[in-house]
Amino acid sequence: MANQQVEPGREEAIATGDAALLPPEHLIDFILGAGSATGFEAVGDEYFGFFTGLCGLRPEEHVLEVGSGVGRLALPLTRYLTPEGRFEGLDIVPEGVAWCNEQISSRFPNFGFKVADIYNTRYNLEGSLRAAEYTFPYADQEFDFVFLASVFTHMLPDGVERYLSEIARVLKPEGRCLITYYLLNDEAFALLEQGKAAVDFPHDHGPYQVHIEADPEETVAYKEEFVRELYPKHGFAIREPIHHGLWAGRDKWLSWQDVIVADREPAS
Hints:
Layout: H1 10-16, H2 25-32, H3 40-53, E1 62-66, H4 75-78, E2 86-91, H5 94-105, E3 111-115, E4 143-148, H6 157-170, E5 171-181, E6 183-184, H7 186-193, E7 203-204, E8 208-210, E9 220-223, H8 224-233, E10 236-238, E11 258-264
Parallel strand pairs: 1-2, 1-4, 2-3, 4-5, 6-9
Antiparallel strand pairs: 5-11, 7-8, 8-9, 10-11
């Protein structure tokens, strides 16, 4: 970046680092859960390593985050994406989107954030659409890389399928996506049976199981075989292996949740 034109505000933000851009703790707790301010930056740095190491993200590429919250995963990218690169964040929480636009977009004009007009009993009572009928506000083949962290862990199958279809639409041919899950396979079921998992899913609904029957989207786990079938259905090839997470009590893991990286297959 030394020989590139620095956009207004970028030089100051790079010099001061992420500390000047950290959201207020009450907003972090509201969107991400109580106590999430602890380790806020570490989680961002962890995922940045996944974007570059697992997904080969390049500084000039166009990136979409679905579920951008308060910018936890966007902030490390402000130090990485060049002015030729671009970041778009999409989220259902108006307060989080407003903070990101005020504090991040004002310093980095190639970073933008939009509210998804999706109804949610906790975060967006004014939303008019359901996830299963939502269309991302972006053009076809607009992005090189799309990622979702802890989004499908709060969505039911009709919403997951719709989002995968939309991710495929907005990705360029051979673009990549990274999505996290709670995946149920033989190993996970054995660990759940042994009581080693940090969260359990006692309510079985076929392809998925939930933690709380009365509030199914609070925490959702999917049968791995079901998820594996969804990817080719929507034009994706999973990069093996799937990176299984610590949540189930494994001895070997990459992150807390299970991580799937996939490639958008070229149009035939």
